[in-house]
Amino acid sequence: MNKYLLLFAVCSLSFWSCDKKQEDPFATVKPDESRFSKIPLAGNFNEPMEIEVLDNGDVLIIERHGKLKLFQAESGETTVVGELPVFPEREDGLIGMAKDPDFATNNWLYLYYAPASEPALNRISRFDFVDKKLDLASEVIILDVDIYRGCCHSGGSLEFDAQGNLYLGIGDDSTPFESSNFNPIDERQDQPKNVDAQRSSGNTNDLRGAILRIKPNPEGGYSIPEGNLFPVGTPKTRPEIYVKGNRNPFRFSIDSRNGNLYWGEVGPDGSEDKEGRGPRGYDEINVATEPGYYGWPYFVGNNYAYWKYDFATGESLFQFDPQAPKNTSPNNTGMEILPAAKPALIYYPYAESEEFPMLGQGGRNAMAGQVYYREDYEESEVRFPGYYNKKLFIYDWMRNWIFTVSLTENFEYDTMERFMPETHFEKPMDMQFAKDGSLYVLEYGTFWRANNDDSGLYRIVFSEGNRKPDVKISADKTAGAAPLAVSFSSEGTKDPDTDDQVSIQWEFGENGATSMDENPTFTFDDPGVYKVKLTATDLKGEASSSFLEVKVGNEAPTVSIDWQGNRSYYFGKETINYAVTAIDKEDGEIDPSQINLTIDYLEGGYDLIETGHQEEILSIGETYINEAGCKACHGISNESVGPDYTSVSEKYKNDPVAKSYLIDKVRNGGAGVWGEQIMPGHTHLEENKVGQMIDFVLGISNPTTETGLPASGEFQIENTEKAEGIYLVQASYEDQGANSIPGIKTTSHLKLRNTTVSAYSADGMEGAARANPEDEYYVQFTSAGSWLLLKDIDLNQISEITLSIMPGNTKGKLQVRAGSPDGQLIAETDILSKDSRPASGQREGWFDFPFAIPATDYYGDLYFVYVTEDPIDIWNTFNLSTVKFDK
């Protein structure tokens, strides 16, 4: 009888499991990205390193300089709950954290840090975390790691497995600067020992360059679990080692089901293979299903082998064998014969990877997150769907992406795909699934070694059925004097499930004031910093929120440029009178000498970006620098890992060969000019783009830039030959702050350009398309009513516009309208067709067509609208190459 009951129970469980799987509509179907919401929780961290998500939704965050912070889910507040005195130089500091598997009952927290009082070691200690505070007096030392503390690759990540074993990743503690971006194996005895990673990563008797696995003891110290790489008592080995042959295993995870270890290995900087030295650098994602040796410093990537290189003679002796690696370095205290090397699971260089092209190219910093198992988490409404079951989450700090990786039954690579490709992640530093199956992501922010405003903690939730509203919040101003009236907008807030409507709730952070208007206006009476919250709720009760800060008590200054010439164009060499004024409510009368005025001539193009309540000009070179991620290591004026760009510009000011020299440095790498830190080569970047990047850097102290100009005077326009050249006039004033609100800087600018404007570079278009066959750049108008936009055009002194056109078989006219495609008509052409072509044309099929502009002082956006009653399509278009404004 009992066996039948058991059979019934098993069958019932099987049916229940099938039913539960059927309840997940995304068990095998990839969900749309709109079903994920990235929710901001906290920000403005000073080099955040790791997180631990607690069962109640609170999150612990460590910062490298020693602070432990706590985000409290209920209140939304983030506070400092502990601070360790640490040595914060190089890559050390407070760099690792893990909560005990029984944290809910014992409140034990493990931290890996560099004690300020100890000159040459890093330490794992256990602390009590009680009443939301770190008890420093409760410290129990678990493990000390002797290090060189002179350079690089500290690792530092801490994780527990399901058996209560604690893993610690440690880098090779070696400098790569003397090895030309190849493997550091310099055995010369007159050199510092840290140039030889054979003493650490290749040394079975050293804890560095490894991932350790230990069992912390309650009274302190640790024991060795069975199954590590070297059994206890093996001569010339350390039994703590689980994985050996690591360069910098920065982030790793342990599979909760099978104990597999996954880690991201930050690789060397070499950009090209070299006979006699070895392969270019690769970052790696690795998997260890058992203990093993993973190759560094003899192999990288898919077991690509380096050469035994004699640094004293410059002779390449032999290439290392991954099946039989040997460590014969005099700096080695471990075994000479090493285990066979295991290749990486995924590996990619700076350039596009042949094996994994989807990972892109550029800077790299590989990290490994968790393997997701849906059944491991609560049956919550936000846990990820079964589509991601058994998939490994990996991410890259430099490339700002997250991928999910599917593996075979033997844990070999199968496929991968990008996770949330339309969502931006600003240098993801750590990630962890919470008890409810949501994913918490810690973002470091733009600049390395900086307290980044755009650092942050985020929670990603999934909506299986009804999706949470997408909330957009904006305001016409976010700073000003008290009382401050602010017009808020919820425009763009919507519910992705189109049948639902959303209700709006505003909270203004002042005396409980709220509003349910979609676009309310609220007056803040008293100075202060107010957190304004917008919550949208759909008909099914699903809600999501977004925030912004309003700083009340200091009015932004206004800066005006009175330019006594055309404010859009220059017409040859001429002298222009100008006057700049600034007004500030709190500062009173402003001394003109406090106004900063610069006038730059930029030979190339530029980008216009929004920065708060104003716009900022970026040269094309700076845009390329941003795209390449160079500002992670170089600030404009603040030194980071490498020198700041202002110092570089000053150093090479007026050097006639500086540009070619620096292009070579960027593309091929180098070290020694600004210190030990090596810059990797960037051969994957196009040389012309690198040239424009260098133009921007050298232009910072370019003597043709007029800086420190008086607030009023005359300016001589000299450079008028290049069609893409612009004069950029920028005037700024930063007030002194008021009512505990910091100073606000306001910048005004004018862009003076050549009178011949390429239609291809228009600021906007609709019903038109850019075309560039055979290097001819022009715009095609493909339908009646198509338009092209040129922003900020001053028609003062303009009497004629000349179009360079190719009408094809179309007949129509071009209208010039103010402010919008159906705005005030300023002028229009006669009918334009191939029959209106003059006897002599400039190019085959093209001709110039001038038409008059009535006298006007209009300054603003111009729309060029194509009007025709004839059929027009993509194969029969009206084409426009340039627009020339004549004085």
Q: How would you explain this protein's 3D organization?
A:
With 887 residues, this protein is mainly beta. Helix 5 (658-668) packs across helix 6. The radius of gyration is 32 Å and the shape is globular. It starts with a helix and ends with a strand. The model is unreliable at 1-22 and 605-616 (pLDDT under 50).
Whole-number mean pLDDT: 87
The total of helices stands at 6
Determine the strand fraction and express it as a percent band: 35-45%
Helix content: under 10%
Number of strands: 57
Would you kindly provide a brief summary of this structure?
The protein is mainly β and 887 residues long. It is built from 6 helices and 57 strands. It starts with a helix and ends with a strand.
What key phrases describe this protein's structure?
single chain; 887 residues; mainly beta; 6 helices; 37% strand; disordered N terminus
SSE layout and pairing:
Blueprint: H1 2-23, E1 36-43, E2 48-53, E3 59-63, E4 67-71, E5 78-83, E6 94-99, H2 103-106, E7 108-113, E8 121-130, E9 133-146, E10 158-160, E11 166-170, E12 210-216, E13 222-223, E14 241-244, E15 249-254, E16 261-265, E17 283-288, E18 292-293, E19 299-300, E20 304-305, E21 307-310, E22 315-319, E23 346-348, E24 366-371, E25 392-396, E26 401-407, E27 413-418, E28 428-433, E29 439-443, E30 456-462, E31 474-475, E32 479-480, E33 484-489, E34 502-507, E35 514-515, E36 521-524, E37 528-538, E38 543-552, E39 558-563, E40 574-583, E41 596-602, E42 606-611, E43 614-619, H3 620-628, H4 645-651, H5 658-668, H6 687-699, E44 712-717, E45 726-734, E46 745-753, E47 756-758, E48 764-766, E49 768-771, E50 778-781, E51 787-794, E52 800-806, E53 813-818, E54 824-828, E55 847-852, E56 859-867, E57 878-886
Parallel strand pairs: 14-18, 32-38
Antiparallel strand pairs: 1-30, 2-3, 3-4, 4-5, 6-7, 7-8, 8-9, 10-11, 11-12, 12-13, 12-14, 15-16, 16-17, 17-23, 19-20, 21-22, 24-25, 25-26, 26-27, 28-29, 29-30, 31-33, 33-36, 34-35, 34-37, 37-38, 39-40, 40-44, 41-45, 42-43, 45-46, 47-57, 48-51, 49-50, 50-57, 51-56, 52-55, 52-57, 53-54, 53-56
